[in-house]
Records
---
Amino acid sequence: MASVLVFVAGLVLTIQAFIGLCFLLSSIWEKEKRASAFAVLQFLGMLGLLVLFLVLWKSRFYEAGPGAAVLIAGLILVAVAAFFLLRRTAPNEAALKGTMGHIVGQVKRYDEREVVFARNRSLRPGSEEYKTFYAQHPELEVYDTKRRERGGPLGQVGSIDKPADGPNVAAAMASLSIPMHVSLQGQVKPHPHPVVKGKRFELTPEQATERVKGYTLHLGADLVGITEINPLWIYSHRGEIFHENWEDWGKEIAVSDRRYAIVFATEMDFRMVGAAPHTPTVIESMFNYGKGAYIATQLAAFVANLGYSAAANHLRHYEALLVPLAVDAGLGEPGRLGYLMTKEFGPRIRLGAVTTDLPLVPDKPVDIGVEGFCRICKKCALSCPSQSIPTGGRMEVNGSLRWKLNAETCFDYWGKIGTDCNICMRVCPWSHARTFPPRLIVELVSRNKMARGIFNIMDDIFYGKKPKSKTPPRWAKFNFSGRK
Ligand code: SF4
Ligand code: SF4
C-alpha cells in the first residue's frame, strides 16, 4: 500500500514539474520576460519538491510514523484541491441561451448610419446626408468634425511610430484594399457561375452544414459556427457607402429570407497583437479583415453556386452585427472589452459571415465562463488609455445586459495614435498564445468558478496588472531609422 501511495505522490509531483517546465518554455517562446522570471522560480520550486521527495523516499522516510502521515496528508490535500478545481461548476444558463439570455428589455435594431466609421466615411460635409443625420444627432457633430480634421477614425495612420512607421502603414493599407476590391454589389451578393447556373443542389441540412463548414475552414477560417438569424441583429438602415452608391444611404434593410448565418473567425497573430498599440497590430487587423473578405466572398459564391441566396459580410459590407451572430452561433461569449471572447483565441480574432437561405443545422450558444472571469478581471479596463471600458458591472444597453464600451472615446484614442490600438486585446489573459499551459488554464477557467479566481490572480503575478507591449517579429519592427 505504502509503495502505491509513494508512486502516486511521485507521479503527481512529476506532472506538476512537467507543467511548470512547459509554462517556462512557453513564456520564453512568447518573449514574456516577467512571466519567464516567475516561471523559472515556480519550476525550480516544483523541481526542488520532487528532488526532496525522491531523497526522502530513498532514505525510507515514508515507510513509517511521521513520514507516512506526511505522505497521506499531502495526497489528501492534492485530492481535495483537484476536486474543487476540476469539477464543473453550475452552468451559466443565460450564456447558454446566447444573446436571448442577455435581453432584459426592448431591443431596437441598430442603425448602420450611427456607426462611427459610417459617419466618418459617408457623411460628406455640406451633403444632404450630413444635414439629415446631424439634425437628428447634434451631439455627435462635434466629435465627428474633430475626427475628420484629424484625418478619420485612424487619424494620421501610423503616427504613433513616426518617423519609422512607413513600411508598416504600407503593409496595413495593402490588406485594407482587399475588402474594397470585393465589395461591389455583384460580389457581396453573388450570382451563380454560368457553369452551374439554373441548378439547385438538393442537400439535407446536415450535408449542407458539413459542406459549408468544411469549406470555410479550408478557405482559412480558424473557427466556424452556424446560427438561425435573430432579426434584431440585422441593421435597420444602410449607412456605409463605398462605391458611390449614394442612393443606398438611409435605405431600410429588410429582414430577408436569408435565415441562416455562417459565422467564422480568423486568429490574429499573438506577436503582432503583442506589439499593440504600435503599427504591427494595425497590420494584423487589416490582414484579418482582408482574409475575412477573401473567405466570405468565396463562401458566398460557393453557396450561390449551390443555387441559394447568399450575402458576404466583411469590412466593406455588413448587413448584421457580427458579435451577436457569433454568440448565437456558439463561437464564444461577449467580454468586458466589447469583443467576442473565444475559448480558442480569446478576443484575438476578427469575424466574418455569410447569410443565406440554404437550410443548415444551427449550433448552440456556449458557456465558457467568460462572464464570471470578466467580472473579476478588469485588466482591459485598467489598461485602456482612454478609460473606454467600464470597470463596473454590466448594464442595460438597448435592451441587452452587457458591458458598454465607450466607442467615441476609444476611437478618439485611435485617432491620436494612428492605429486601432488593441491594447485591451493584447492584455487580456485569454489572448495568450495557445501553447499547452494557456490551453490548460482556459479549459479550467471555462468549467470551474474557483479556477477563475485563482488564475486571475496568477495572471496578475506572472504578466503584471498592466502588461507591457512586446517586440514584434523582425520584419514588422517599427523602431528603426530607414525612413527618408
Ligand atoms: S482599443 Fe484601446 S482605446 Fe479602445 S477600448 Fe481597447 S484599449 Fe481602450
Ligand atoms: S481583460 Fe479580463 S475583463 Fe477584459 S475581456 Fe479579458 S478577461 Fe475580460
Note: The CA atoms of residues 179 and 284 lie 14 Å apart.
---
Amino acid sequence: MESNIIKENDFIFLVLDDRRRWLVQVKKGEEFHTHKGIISHSDLIGKAFGTCIFSKPHESQGYKFYILKPYPSDFILHMARKTQIIYPKDAGIILLHTGIGPGCKVIEAGCGSGALTCILGNYVRPNGHIFSYDIREKSLKQATKNIKKANLNDYVSINYGNILEDDLNHKNIDAIVLDMPTPWLAIEKVKKYLKLSGSIVSFSPTIEQVKKTTFEMEKNDFFEIISVELLIREMQIKENATRPNTRMIGHSGYLTFGRKIENKKNPYRGIKPRKKEFINLDGMPLRDIDDNEK
Ligand SMILES: C[S@@+](CC[C@H](N)C(=O)[O-])C[C@H]1O[C@@H](n2cnc3c(N)ncnc32)[C@H](O)[C@@H]1O
C-alpha cells in the first residue's frame, strides 16, 4: 500500500481556501511563499497527507493550510500550460471508454501542454507506454517539463511527429487519442497502428469537426462509433437553497469514439437456399426442415 506520509520529492496539494490552492513538490530546505505567509518544506516532510500546517511567521500570519495528496485532476488543472488542455471530466471518459489501463500502449497527438499525457501515463503504469507527438516546439518543451515533474518519464515518450504525415512506425497499439484541429485527416493513416479491437478517440470543440471525423471513421470501417458531450454541474448545498451553481463550464468539447474491427463480406449472403427436404425420423411425423435449421 502507498505510504500516506510525505517524503522529499512528493507532490502535495496545498489548500488555503476554495480559490487559493497550489501543487508543490517537496524539497528539503526550500520554502513556499504566499501572501498569507511562508511554509517551510522541511516542516512538511514526515507529516501525513490530510493534516494541516500553519504558515510562518506565526505571530503575524499563522494561516491554516491543508496538505492533501493530489488527485490526477489536480495535476491537470494546476500544471503549467501553453495550450488549451483537456478537462478532468473528458479525461475520465477517455480512460473508461477506451479501456486504457495498466500495460496499454497508446499513441497521442498532439501532446499540447501534456495534461492528458500525464493522466494517460499514470494509468498505463507499470508496464504500458504513451507515445506522444506534437509539431510545435513550445508544446513539446512544456509537455516534456510536465511529464518530468510528474515523474512519468519511464511511461511516456514525447517526440516531434506529424500524425498526418509522418510514418510513426508503431503496431499493435491499444488506443489512439487525438486532440488536434483536424483529426479526420489522421483516421486513415493511424488505423494501421492499432490492433484489432483497439480504440480511437478524438476530442474536438466543434460539431463540424465531429461530423468530418465520424464520416471518416465510417469510411475506414471503424465500429461502435459514438460521439458524446459531458456536462458537469456542481451543486450549491445550503439550508433551503440547494440547487446547481449559477456558473459552470458550458462547453469544453465533444468526444468521438470508434473501434477497429475486421470487416469481411458475409460469404453466406447471396447463396440460394437449398430445396426443401423431407426427413423421416423413427416414430416421428414427417416434417419440413425449416430454413433456419439448415
Ligand atoms: C489543444 S492542444 C492538445 C492539448 C493536450 N491534449 C493537453 O491536454 O494538454 C493541440 C495540439 O495539437 C498539436 N498538433 C496540431 N496538428 C498536429 C499534427 N498534425 N501532429 C501532431 N500534433 C499536432 C498542436 O501543436 C497542439 O499542441
Note: The domain at 11-70 is CATH 3.10.330.20 (Vcp-like ATPase; Chain A, domain 2).
